[in-house]
Design brief:
Blueprint (H helix, E strand, L loop, with lengths): L18 H18 L9 E5 L3 H13 L5 E7 L6 H15 L3 E5 H5 L3 H6 L7 H16 L5 E3 L4 H13 L3 H4 L5 E2 L9 E3 L7 H10 L16 H15 L3 H19 L6 E2 L6 E2 L5 H9 L4
Parallel strand pairs: 1-2, 1-4, 2-3, 4-6
Antiparallel strand pairs: 5-6, 7-8
Helix pairs in contact: 1-9, 2-9, 7-10, 7-11
The chain binds iron/sulfur cluster and zinc ion (ZN).
The site of zinc ion has 7 residues, from helix 12.
């Protein structure tokens, strides 16, 4: 197959593009999402939540390219997943050094007294690994991005279509209302505005971009992902996409249509300060402090 722009050998079939034109297509798509949804303003300070994986490395690189004059820093959470996170963090350190991007690594061990591996080995919790990990990680990302105007994440179209379907399947409409390319509560100083520039880029596209750019990233998966509900939904959507092309885009685009109404409906949810740790929370005691007291003293 030939590139529809120049006739060179295509690296992607839909759209048919060669290496050079695919890279430009992908970067333009990301920049277009940033512009269309007003994700980042001209002078905004940018904190990029990174893991060393393909999506966050791609978004980190493109943010630096689009906003060369803005204050930009990478933030990584070391959950403490032996044989997995140590490898991706090594790749990330190498990448940030090469690109001269400041990197802040925050660990579960230091913040909560135990790594994720250690927390899971206590077997006191009924929750699945990803529920624990996600709750603790979101908390740390918000806490350590304070002072930045935005926190950028590498969520792509596949991630978002999975999140939409998961919340529908579980009847969690209020959680659904918190999705979208711009999330977080910008008007409340305690939450950093979260933005997702890869919102309309598929997993396949972002993997191809990382590969063609020669980023030193691992394509291995976290060993705990197999226990997650998300993995079931991901497999289901991948199966469905292979027989009904366009399903994931359709899910996200339909969702974008109803999102303004969902946001209006759930606009009143109140945010208070957690009475234990002082971080923002929708309950008197935040999810992290409740989790911590469920495990026993880990701080
Ligand atoms: Fe954490 Fe689950 Fe992601 Fe692994 S797959 S890093 S446990 S959220
Ligand atoms: Zn708390």
């Amino acid at each position: 197959m030939k590139c529809s722009k120049c006739g060179e050998k295509a690296v992607l079939s839909g759209p048919a593009l060669c290496r050079k034109h695919f890279i430009s297509y992908f970067e333009k798509k990301v920049a277009g999402t940033v512009k269309k949804y007003h994700l980042i303003g001209p002078g905004n300070s940018i904190c990029v939540a990174t893991s060393g994986g393909k999506d966050s490395t791609a978004v980190l690189y493109i943010m630096k390219k689009i906003f060369p004059k803005n204050k930009l820093s990478a933030l990584a959470i070391d959950e403490g997943i032996r044989g997995y996170r140590d490898k991706t963090l090594a790749d990330l350190r190498h990448f940030c050094l090469k690109e001269k991007i400041p990197l802040n690594v925050v660990s579960f061990k230091k913040e909560f007294g135990r790594s994720l591996d250690e927390i899971l080995s206590t077997k006191k919790l009924k929750l699945k690994p990803c529920n624990i990990c996600g709750t603790l990680r979101r908390y740390l990302l918000n806490k350590h991005s304070r002072g930045f105007d935005v926190i950028v994440t590498g969520h792509n179209l596949d991630d978002e279509s999975q999140a939409i379907v998961m919340n529908l399947f579980r009847n969690q409409i209020e959680v659904l209302a918190r999705l979208g390319p711009r999330t977080g509560v910008s008007e409340r100083k305690s939450f950093t505005q979260r933005v997702k520039p890869l919102y309309f880029c598929s997993e396949k596209e972002s993997a191809l971009y990382a590969l063609l750019m020669g980023f030193d990233v691992s394509f291995n998966e976290c060993p705990y992902v197999v226990y997650s509900y998300r993995a079931d939904v991901r497999d289901l959507l991948n199966d469905y996409e292979s027989s009904h092309k366009g399903t994931k885009v359709n899910i996200v685009e339909s969702f974008m249509d109803i999102l303004p109404n969902l946001k209006k409906r759930y606009a009143d949810s109140t945010i208070v300060r957690c009475s234990v740790c002082g971080e923002p929370s929708s309950n008197q005691v935040c999810n992290v402090c409740r989790l911590v007291s469920g495990i026993g003293k880990i701080r």
